[in-house]
Amino acid sequence: MAAKQYKKLGCLDVSPAGGCAFEVRAETEEEVLRMVADHGKAMHQMTSVPPDVVAKIKAAIKNVSINV
Ligand SMILES: [Zn+2]
What we know:
Strand content: 25-35%
Number of strands: 3
Distance between the termini: 6 Å
Bound molecules: zinc ion
Helix content: 40-55%
Mean pLDDT: 93
Low-confidence stretches: none
Number of helices: 3
Radius of gyration: 12 Å
Order of helices and strands: EHEHHE
Number of domains: 1
C-alpha cells in the first residue's frame, strides 16, 4: 500500500455562496484547473475562468494523500 498525493478542490471552496457540492481530485494543479474550468462552463455558465478566480482556485487547492 502506498500513499498517493492528490490535489483536491471543491466548488464551495471557491464559491461558498454557490451551494454546489462538486469536487475535483487530480494529480496536478493543471488538471484540477482544467476540470474546474469544464465544470464552470457546464454548470455555472462560465465561458472562461478569469485570472482572479484562477488565483482563488490555486489558493483553495488542498493536498490530500490517498492510500492505493
Ligand atoms: Zn459548481
